[in-house]
Amino acid sequence: MKKMIARDLVIVGGGPAGLAAALTAYEAGVKDILLLERDQYLGGILNQCIHPGFGLQYFKEELTGPQYAERFIEKIMGIKEIEISLKSLVVHLTKKKELTYIKPGTMQTVAAKTLIMGTGCRERTREMIRIPGTRPAGIFPAGLAQKLINIEGLLPGREVVIIGSGDIGLIMARRFTLEGAHVKAVIEIQKESRGLIRNVAQCLDDFNLPLYLQHKILKIHGKDRVEKVTVAEVDDEFQEISGTRFELACDTVLVSVGLIPENELIEMAGVVMDEKTNTPESGELNTTSIPGLWVCGNAYKIYDVVDGVTRDSAQAGKLAAEYLRNLP
């Protein structure tokens, strides 16, 4: 069995949160940093966000997602004290901050003096909001559809209905339109959109795409492929208003109904969790119930813009550096 390696700071996640934490920790004096990323590239979700709107707060200029990520990646790649391990998936974490990760051809265990989790979040699915109907092809989380178009070069469908008006759903309404698809409607159960005002204006209003507020999908129809959805208006209790049903023919349904912080590893380690939000119970930014273990970025709370992720994740790097300085 391989001997466990001790590291001063281990960071899990190479997206905007992990990158900001690593750079700040290094600048604060930490000279032994291991950054683990399960994908084959650094940058996280930013790699598939090719639209502009990033960096307005942090850099005071407008960038695309990949451009924003590149500014941090270029800095990190020039720092020999930060070891980057790509294609590295963490599969186990203990209360002692001992973690096991696998990468092609090997499995390794590391004992971290300090640990920062920048594991991001995942999308809520159709099943989580209990939309009845069949299970045909053509139902996608909006973020997955974004990856298929922007990275894989695939168009998932041509007649599209979007459930939920979160930012990813709004952005994908524009993206599908630009690719020549027909967005039939964005369906939102609340009284107002849950996305940024600028995204409603730039992604829906500018393209004359319909937004149905206080409506919900009652059923998805289709055998092999999505054929149509049944929609109805709802009251303040989200109950169907009689006589308001109508159908929209489509071949694709995107689900954009919120994000869930990815925190199963820290839950495995015994961190005290808030079951409603799947985030650590904490009275202070980034902290957890385990000393020396911090959570940052969308794993700590869901942010509207990446600039906030960078700002707050930098604080996690400072906390880790301070903790290491105070160790006996």
Entry keywords:
21 strands; 328 residues; 7 helices; 5-stranded parallel beta sheet; FAD/NAD(P)-binding domain; 7-stranded mixed beta sheet; 2 domains; 24% helix; alpha/beta
Describe this structure in words.
The chain has 328 residues and is of the alpha/beta class. It has two domains: 5-122 and 259-325, FAD/NAD(P)-binding domain (3-Layer(bba) Sandwich); 125-255, FAD/NAD(P)-binding domain. 24% of the residues lie in helices and 30% in strands. It contains seven helices and 21 strands. It has helices at 16-27, 65-77, 142-150, 167-178, 197-204, 264-269, 306-325, and strands at 5-12, 33-36, 52-54, 63-64, 82-85, 89-93, 98-103, 106-117, 121-123, 139-141, 159-163, 182-188, 211-213, 215-222, 226-233, 246-249, 252-255, 259-261, 273-274, 279-280, 293-295. The strands form six sheets. Strands 1, 2, 5, 6, 7, 8 and 21 form a seven-stranded mixed sheet that branches. Strands 10-17-11-12-13 form a five-stranded parallel sheet. The mean pLDDT is 96.
Quick gist of this model?
With 328 residues, the chain is of the alpha/beta class. The protein contains seven helices and 21 strands.
Protein topology:
Layout: E1 5-12, H1 16-27, E2 33-36, E3 52-54, E4 63-64, H2 65-77, E5 82-85, E6 89-93, E7 98-103, E8 106-117, E9 121-123, E10 139-141, H3 142-150, E11 159-163, H4 167-178, E12 182-188, H5 197-204, E13 211-213, E14 215-222, E15 226-233, E16 246-249, E17 252-255, E18 259-261, H6 264-269, E19 273-274, E20 279-280, E21 293-295, H7 306-325
Parallel strand pairs: 1-2, 1-8, 2-5, 8-21, 10-17, 11-12, 11-17, 12-13
Antiparallel strand pairs: 3-4, 6-7, 7-8, 9-18, 14-15, 15-16, 19-20
